[in-house]
Design a protein that fits this description.
The complex is a heterodimer of chains A (116) and B (114). Chain A is globular and about 45 Å long. With 116 residues, chain A is mainly beta. In chain A, strands 2, 5, 6, 10, 11 and 12 form a six-stranded mixed β-sheet that branches. A four-stranded antiparallel β-sheet of chain A has the order 3-9-8-7, with no helix packed on it. Chain A has no helices and twelve strands. With 114 residues, chain B is an all-beta fold. In chain B, 0% of the residues lie in helices and 49% in strands. Chain B is built from no helices and eleven strands. In chain B, the strands form two sheets. In chain B, strands 2, 4, 5, 6, 9, 10 and 11 form a seven-stranded mixed β-sheet that branches. The N and C termini of chain B lie far apart (36 Å). The model of chain B has no long low-confidence stretch (mean pLDDT 93). Classes of the chains: A mainly beta (116), B mainly beta (114). Chains A and B meet through strand 5, strand 6 and strand 10 of A and strand 5, strand 9 and strand 10 of B.
Chain lengths: 116, 114
């Protein structure tokens, strides 16, 4: 069975603060994929990143960075210098890489509120 | 590329009525997924198509729910004899059929059963 835990239900920060969203996962698979999606108030989930379990390199994309630590089964997401437009619910998801299953397991999401 | 579209965006229905939702995926995407999302939760998988074949169904999909994807293009999700517990956001997503691909989501259909 797969499980994704996003322990932070809601985080509130002031603009320009850095913020880290935690994601811890459980799987018996040795190969898998991890994802982050953003769901702004408009409701449409937007893909942010996909990471293969073989690739433990951290990734940076503009103000976004991701820290994948296989040893602790975590895939944390950091927003640097947060902006009001970052306010959204962020979901971490896990998908098996084998067995022909293309259905991700989502966490419950972390609601990020960025105040001006 | 117009993205994934869903209709209607909102549906209010009385308990016991049937409802049907439509999803139009991104045109070159072979895979299409339906999810249900309730407040404070992540998307919960309902069913998945590759082209016109329905390959997986969740246990959440009771016999009141049926989904189709004729000709592998748009898809419909029908709920018969709606119950108040069916009130939720129904999300559709599509993806390329290349291993484990990222999914592109539509805006959802919000169903309220009174």
């Amino acid at each position: 069975a797969q499980k994704v835990t996003q322990a932070q239900t809601e985080i509130s920060v002031v603009e320009k603060e850095d913020v880290t969203l935690d994601c811890v996962y459980e799987t018996r698979d040795t190969t898998y994929y991890l994802f982050w999606y953003k769901q702004p108030p408009s409701g449409e989930l937007v893909f942010l990143i996909r990471r293969n379990s073989f690739d433990e390199q951290n990734e940076i994309s503009g103000r976004y960075s991701w820290n994948f630590q296989k040893s602790t089964s975590s895939f944390n997401f950091t927003i640097t210098a947060s902006q009001v437009v970052d306010s959204a619910v962020y979901f971490c998801a896990l998908n098996r890489a084998s067995g022909g299953s293309y259905i991700p397991t989502f966490g419950r999401g972390t609601s990020l509120i960025v105040h001006p | 590329d117009t993205g994934v579209s869903q209709n209607p965006r909102h549906k209010i229905t009385k308990r016991g009525q049937n409802v049907t939702f439509r999803c139009d995926p991104i045109s070159e995407h072979n895979r299409l997924y339906w999810y249900r999302q309730t407040l404070g939760q992540g998307p919960e998988f309902l069913t998945y198509f590759q082209n016109e074949a329905q390959l997986e169904k969740s246990r959440l999909l009771s016999d009141r729910f049926s989904a189709e994807r004729p000709k592998g293009s748009f898809s419909t999700l029908e709920i018969q004899r709606t119950e108040q517990g069916d009130s939720a956001m129904y999300l559709c997503a599509s993806s390329l059929a290349q291993g484990v691909s990222e999914q592109y989501f539509g805006p959802g259909t919000r169903l309220t059963v009174t």
